Amino acid sequence: MAKQQADNITMASGGTYSLATRGAKDVIDRATPRVLKAIEGLGIPADRARFTMADMGCADGGTSLEMVSAVIEAVQRAAPGVQSTVVYADQPHNDFNALVQIAHGLGPFESWSRRFDNAWPLVSGSSFYLQAVPDTSLDFAFSATAMHWLSEKPCEIESHVHMVGASAEEHAVFSARAEADWLTILQHRLRELKPGGRAVFVNFCRDAAGHYLGNTGGVNMFDTLRDIWHEFVADGVINSEELARMTLPQYYRTVEEFAQPFDAGLLPGMRLESIETAQVVCPYAAQFQADADLETFASGLIGTIRSWNQSVFLGALDGSRSLDERHAIIEDYYEAYRVRVLDDPTGHGMDYVHAYMTVVKDS
Questions:
Q1: Any idea what the Cα angle at residue 318 is, between residues 328 and 204, rounded to 5°?
Q2: Is-contact 275 182, C-beta < 8 A?
Q3: What is the pLDDT of residues 322-337, one digit of tens each?
Q4: Helices H, strands E: what count in the chain?
Q5: Collapsing DSSP states into helix, strand and coil, what is residue 185?
Q6: Is 4-213+248-282+350-361 a CATH 3.40.50.150 domain?
Q7: Which of 4, 56, 229, 326 gets the most CB atoms within 10 Å of its CB?
Q8: Phi and psi (nearest 5°) for 109?
Q9: What is the DSSP letter of 267?
Q10: pTM summary value
């Protein structure tokens, strides 16, 4: 099967993504001490005039506001007169209107831009698969919960929606695409970072115990996504061709796969300083444990799940269907998942499993 560009991927728009993905913010909050250690490692002199950082794969920018604020504060402590720019980068389909509003503190978010007079948000309409800023222009780069998306869908996964359920042959095809993509991502960051610059990447992974997003000992989220689509085929809601297109163009790398291009010497002048894996508990499941509010739990969990995969599933439905029909199918699909949670919430949740890594460009 011919390779397919992954061009129908968008996060939920209008600021909904950050409102619905409390867990993604929790992941960034956990990464913030690592980020601040990286900033300290830059050795910013007191007379530094300019500082530039980038948030790549930022979606609407809401989940990283507090981290960015902490970075600017740390930079200003080191160099009180410094002027800072924060470059937000994402794919062309991103909701940049929401991003700009959130960066300026409009709507339900408090932004760093209202705290600091000498710091400005900029936008690069370029994905992390491309160079997003000029050579040697970044002091610091950051990306969280983004680089698991592949540049293209290398094949369909016949009996699942995700590479975690792929056959050995399918997995090999996805692995090869992910390996090439990861090297491309790092090569661009190598060009963008200044000598001595640093980057912190927080990426979905498969950890040493075999855990990954939505699979940490309870109900497997991706198996549930698959099962409901198979039920829709059996009930005649969608056809088998549509089912075949439901594959998510994602790959969850292992620590060894993240380290491979560094270990192989493919990035002269760049080194992986440290890497660790960690789980962040699903905030909706944690809240349910505390308050036993089943309706709120089910609605919150389904909201966060659909915020990152709805566009792919909607794009997989046949174009011969009216847009209203396609949207109705999508609503029925997520409602079916919500009903499953309501019927038996045991084991449901979306714990996050990430690799946290710091990368350094040699001086």
A1: 80
A2: no
A3: 999 999 999 999 999 9
A4: 11, 9
A5: helix
A6: yes
A7: 56
A8: -110, 145
A9: S
A10: 0.92
